[in-house]
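Give me the 3D structure for Biotin transport system permease protein.
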Amino acid sequence: MSSPLGLYQPGTSPLHRLTPGPKLVGLFLLAAAVLVAKGPWTGIAFVALALVLAALGSLSPRSLLGALRPFLIVAVLLLAFNSWQNGWPRAVEVVADLTALILAATVLTATTAVNDLLDTIVRSLRPFRRLGVDPDRVGLTFSLMLRALPGTIELAAETRDAARARGLERSIRARTIPLVLRVVARARDTGDALHARGVLD
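Predicted structure for Biotin transport system permease protein (201 residues):
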């Protein structure tokens, strides 16, 4: 698997020893700051902060590049489109902000066991049960999301290899349509399995 996003990497770094709650709050605050702050240099500063966190979590450069690789094509398109529509400062800001959030989310999932993360989310939402929030269902949603990310990346790699084997590695259609169909099929199978167990009733 090329991306650590959604995959826990055991370790003894300061971030590994930190409980999931402060890390979730930190990620939330970073996301809020990214939404509020404007300008290309603030975006670059957020990327630098995320890299510092990655160093604290003992994540290797190879792991970080693996996490960013699926985002590269989108980043190039966003950079080109925003440069054309809004100028290069806005383009750099958008791409840098998204890069910082991807890196920060990677640090969180790579330094936190999934079960610990889900237990923290469910426990923190229990006070909101009176307002109609179902903590177990929210926890299940997060669990499915975390498991879907590496699964989708794996499907993308398999689809790319299949297109390459047929000599169609340059065909966007041969790489995207099978991927979309397989992702939708997997989502439908997951929904059917949950429905069969009465989870969504």
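The mean pLDDT is 84. Let me know if you want a second pass.
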